[in-house]
Structure formats: C-alpha cells, structure tokens
Specification:
Layout: H1 5-26, H2 33-39, H3 47-50, H4 54-76, H5 85-94, H6 106-115, H7 119-137, H8 145-168, H9 172-186
C-alpha cells in the first residue's frame, strides 16, 4: 500500500531526526545507513525512497541539529532574575554533559567531521553558526553592532572549544577547570 504524502514526509523527518542523533552519538563516518534506518524503525531498503545519498542525509541532519541548538539558545537567551541573557547562554552552553554527546551544540561533537563534509553540510553548519552568533550578539548590549558581533564570534568559538576540550581531557578536575575558566571570561563580555 502506498503511503500518503504526509506519511512520507513524517517518515523522512523521523529518519533525519534519528540520523542527527546517531551521528552525534557515533560520528558521521562511523554511522552506517543500516544503523540509522534500524534506529528509525525502518529497513535499509527504504532509504533511497527518501534520499539520493548519505551526504544528502548528513546535510539535512546537520541542519536539524543546528536548528535544535538555535532553539535551545533562543530559550536560554531570556534573562533570569540574577543573570543577563548572555550569562544564561554561556551557562547553558558550558553546562553540556561532558559524557553525553547527544546534548548541546552539534559543532562540539562533530566539528572536525563537519569541516571535512560536502558543501551542503558545511553550509548547514555555517548557517547555524551564524544564527547562534546573531543570538549571542543580541545579548551584548553595551557595544556597537560590529563589536557585539565580533565578541559573539569569539564567545561561541570559545564555548565550542571549551566543551570539546572538557570532553577530550581525561582528568575530571581539568575538565571542570576548562569550563569554569571559559565561563568566568565569557560572562565579562557584556
């Protein structure tokens, strides 16, 4: 029986969402199509009804993961009682569980693989990065738009690097120190 367009679109969304999680869990190159389709509750044979290639799926999964990161950052950008929006963003970003690559920004766990990906995937990652920069820049209010953007580029790059290194190092104390130092410095960017 043939599926409706709505069912086909929903199946495609499920595959993309599943792929985004599987890529973050295992890496892009270490994750096969069979694993993605099985995790989505589908057979591998159905993959090519939805996508032309794994590269197409990677690009769409990257866009999905970046969209989730942007949404999380938008939610975090609301000032709390005793914190500015920037402080809340920094705290939220740097509070990613170092042992759970499924949480937080996909640039942290997949950065080097995304750098080696095709143009569509890199464009999706770049677009998400720019959106995150714009959100962070909007929270830096005591500076011109150009200075706020430059500080936001630095802040996002520093947060990505700090979380990445906190996951790489084997010493838990050093891991915590990396995040604390980044938190201390970045909240002064107001």
């Amino acid at each position: 029986m043939k599926k409706s367009r709505a069912e086909t679109a929903e199946t495609r969304r499920r595959i993309v969402k599943t792929a985004a999680a599987e890529f973050r869990r295992n890496g892009i190159h270490a994750t096969g199509l069979a694993e993605i389709m099985a995790a989505a509750g589908l057979t591998q044979g159905g993959f090519y009804r939805h996508f032309d290639s794994k590269d197409q799926l990677v690009a769409e999964a990257c866009a999905e993961a970046m969209s989730s990161a942007v949404t999380l950052t938008q939610t975090a950008s609301r000032p709390a009682e005793d914190q500015t929006g920037l402080e809340v963003i920094v705290e939220t970003f740097l509070s990613q569980d170092r042992n759970n690559p499924l949480e937080g920004c996909p640039l942290v766990g997949l950065g080097i693989e995304l750098a080696r990906a095709d143009g569509d995937t890199r464009a999706a990652a770049s677009d998400g990065f720019v959106e995150l920069v714009e959100l962070i820049a909007s929270q830096i209010r005591r500076a011109s738009p150009e200075v706020a953007r430059a500080r936001a580029i630095f802040a996002l790059s520093a947060m990505i690097g700090a979380v990445t290194m906190s996951r790489i190092v084997t010493d838990p104390d050093l891991s915590a120190a990396i995040l604390q130092e980044a938190r201390t410095r970045l909240t002064k960017l107001k």
